């Protein structure tokens, strides 16, 4: 997957989105709005963000409409806030880079800290920013001849047991080839970006974002020989739930957001999405520096 491509065109409109209820972001939003406006850049605030910052009278948009109106989205919060916005940008078919600003500990995705904010903004506006191109996933759930869901996600699609269900059994194929049956709590299909999320907690490997691959990670498998598998990004993954008992509940989760419950005969398919999402990198640290800080490598 290519990376480090600067934005191709001048940015005249910037969208601002803050994590819901993040009051610490209010003064930053006000300062950033003034800073951008002095540079003849029009600010479009996500509606709840405008209310949080008390910036009434400014141009606003819903999260769904924002990607189509701006050339850059700045997200203030954590990785979850950026993840939700990345999915909306992909769903809108917009080629809009995201600058994630972290208000807690350093994030895997929101790696720009507050002291680096204006330096990073300046680099995006003048076209010198480093921008990672991140592979997205497309997940479709089919029942008979209709789609129950068709979603684009940045991190992962999870097929898992419901909260009151016993273990699930899933038949997994890659392309036209049957791979295995997974018995346990479920299966994660992750992008390289998602390899450092839920998949990592379940024992999956870390994939560098430039690796063009998908990752299949079983969740609490009952067979110790069920191990994570890395497959080509060109492959289609197909999962069929093997439901034998009425109390078996199988659900789909798209980047942490609940999707439909599956019944016998349903199929889930996961492929690489047609377009990637672009994330602005902090110029002060590399990907491996972020990993070292987040995973505490080398610390005792």
In this structure, how is the largest beta sheet organized? 6 strands, antiparallel
Structural class: alpha+beta
Beta percentage is 35-45%
**What Rg do the Cα atoms give?**
20 Å
pLDDT averaged residue by residue: 92
Q: How do the SSEs run, as a string of H and E?
A: EHEHEEHEHEEEEEEEHEEEEEEEH
**Which word captures the global form?**
globular
Strand order of the largest sheet: 8-7-18-15-10-11
Supply the CATH class of the largest domain: Alpha Beta
Helical amount? 10-25%
Q: How many domains comprise the coordinates? A: 2
CATH superfamily of the largest domain: Probable inorganic polyphosphate/atp-NAD kinase, domain 1
Based on the structure given, which CATH architecture of the largest domain is correct? 3-Layer(aba) Sandwich
How large is the count of helical segments?
A: 6
Distance between the termini: 34 Å
According to CATH, the fold-level topology of the largest domain is Rossmann fold
Number of strands: 19
List the uncertain runs. none
């Amino acid at each position: 997957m290519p990376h480090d491509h600067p934005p191709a065109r001048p940015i005249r409109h910037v969208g601002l989105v803050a994590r819901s209820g993040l009051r610490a972001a209010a003064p930053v939003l006000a300062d950033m709005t003034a800073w951008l406006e002095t540079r003849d850049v029009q600010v479009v605030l996500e509606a709840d963000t405008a209310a949080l910052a008390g910036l009434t009278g400014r141009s606003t948009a819903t999260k769904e409409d924002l990607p189509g109106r701006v050339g850059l989205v700045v997200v203030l919060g954590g990785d979850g806030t950026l993840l939700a916005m990345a999915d909306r940008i992909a769903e809108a078919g917009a080629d809009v880079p995201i600058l994630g600003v972290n208000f807690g500990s350093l994030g895997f995705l929101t790696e720009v800290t507050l002291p680096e904010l204006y330096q990073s903004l300046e680099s995006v506006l003048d076209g010198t920013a480093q921008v990672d191109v991140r592979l997205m996933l497309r997940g479709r759930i089919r029942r008979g001849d209709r789609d129950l869901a068709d979603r684009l996600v940045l991190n992962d699609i999870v097929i898992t047991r419901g909260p009151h269900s016993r273990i699930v059994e899933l038949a997994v194929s890659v392309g036209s080839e049957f791979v295995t049956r997974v018995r346990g709590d479920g299966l994660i299909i992750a992008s390289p970006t998602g390899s450092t999320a839920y998949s990592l907690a379940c024992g999956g490997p870390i994939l560098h974002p430039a690796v063009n691959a998908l990752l299949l990670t079983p969740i609490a498998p009952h067979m110790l020989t069920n191990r994570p598998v890395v497959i080509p990004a060109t492959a289609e993954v197909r999962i069929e739930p093997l439901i034998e008992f009425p109390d078996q509940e199988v659900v789909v989760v798209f980047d942490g957001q609940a999707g439909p419950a599956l019944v016998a005969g349903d199929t889930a398919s996961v492929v690489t999405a047609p377009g990637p999402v672009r994330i602005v990198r902090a110029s002060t640290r590399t990907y491996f520096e972020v990993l070292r800080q987040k995973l505490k490598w080398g610390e005792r």
